[in-house]
Automatic annotation (TrEMBL):
Pfam families (UniProt xref): HTH_1, LysR_substrate
DNA-binding is among the record's keywords: yes
Name under which the protein is recorded: LysR substrate-binding domain-containing protein
Keywords: DNA-binding, Plasmid, Transcription, Transcription regulation
Domain annotation HTH lysR-type: ranges: 7-64
Keyword Chaperone: no
Similarity comment text for this entry: Belongs to the LysR transcriptional regulatory family.
Phylogenetic lineage: Bacteria, Pseudomonadati, Pseudomonadota, Alphaproteobacteria, Hyphomicrobiales
Length: 299
């Protein structure tokens, strides 16, 4: 028997819309149907299922227990259908939109994306620096790269790398106090982003508790690349991840006075919508970034 004769597909589409909007009237407006037609389609599906999917009150509806179990699966099914159709009609070149935390975007991803594009010439890349990651399932990004543990509902998350952090500064600033020889010497210098929780954690690890930090006042950033640039200019000491600043350390623009580095409490992760998990461009990017990071971490 044909699928169209087995399932009331139009009624399922109406159910998804009504359940998402929690209104038969608004569902009708979105679908170009009357409220009566919406109610009729919902009744058809309820008869097919054999149980009510909505409870009804004057000017109010809501999903029953059965409806609440069914709706997310119906929504995912339609998302998979839309994705399949989009893949079928996509042009020879498609775009992968990536939203990434700023420093990972600038100091690692942008420097390595060329190899991904060489390996996948049919995929164009759009990379955006993003500081806030909230409802990732509703964003325009194909993949997101946040730093944290989530949760991000409706998504799949793969930890990519867990970084550490340590103080860094310019050689000139260190020379201004005769060199930085012990952790307490850092307390003589202006501190970039003194409110960063990494500072007390690092100082505690070297035996200095409740340190008094000299605030630079004008330099408080959320992105490590901005903090590093401020440190290179000699404005203060930044607490940042050596992984991102290998070139600056190798060239001597930044120095790392102490080997001690503390681990971050959360990894950088690759996140994408659960409904897009089988999209070829997402699978290709996941495989590439995982392999590239593993190769870089190898001794």
């Amino acid at each position: 028997m044909k699928l169209s004769r087995q399932l009331p597909l139009n009624a399922i589409r109406v159910f998804e819309t009504a359940g998402r909007l929690m209104s038969f009237t608004r569902a009708g407006e979105e679908l170009g149907m009357t409220q009566t037609a919406v109610s009729y389609q919902i009744k058809l599906l309820e008869d097919y299922v054999g149980e009510p999917l909505f409870w009804r009150r004057p000017r109010q509806i809501g999903l029953t227990e059965t409806g609440a179990r069914l709706h997310p699966k119906v929504t995912e099914g339609f998302e998979l259908l839309v994705d399949a159709v989009q893949q079928a009609k996509r042009s020879a070149v498609e775009t992968l939109e990536i939203h990434s935390v700023p420093t990972f975007a600038s100091n690692w991803l942008a420097r390595h994306l060329g190899s991904f594009q060489l390996a996948h010439p049919d995929i164009a890349v759009r990379l955006l620096r993003v500081s806030k990651f909230e409802d990732l399932a509703t964003k325009s990004a194909d993949v997101a790269i946040p730093w944290g543990n989530g949760p991000w509902p409706g998504t799949i998350a793969h930890p990519l790398i867990r970084l550490d952090f340590t103080p860094m500064l310019s050689p000139k600033l260190a020379e201004s106090i005769g060199g930085v020889h012990e952790p307490a010497d850092l307390l003589k210098l202006p501190i970039i982003s003194p409110g960063d929780p990494w500072w007390p954690q690092w100082f505690a690890a070297v035996g200095i508790h409740n340190p008094t930090l000299i605030d630079t006042k004008l330099h408080s950033y959320e992105a490590q690349d901005l903090e590093a640039n401020s440190a290179i200019a000699g404005f203060g000491v930044a607490i940042i991840s050596p992984f991102f600043f290998k070139e600056e350390l190798a060239s001597g623009r930044l120095i790392r006075p102490f080997e001690l580095a503390c681990p971050a409490n959360a990894p950088i992760q690759l996140v994408y919508s659960h409904s897009r998990r089988n999209a070829p461009k997402i699978r290709a990017f996941h495989a590439w970034i995982t392999a590239t990071l593993e190769a870089e971490k190898a001794p």
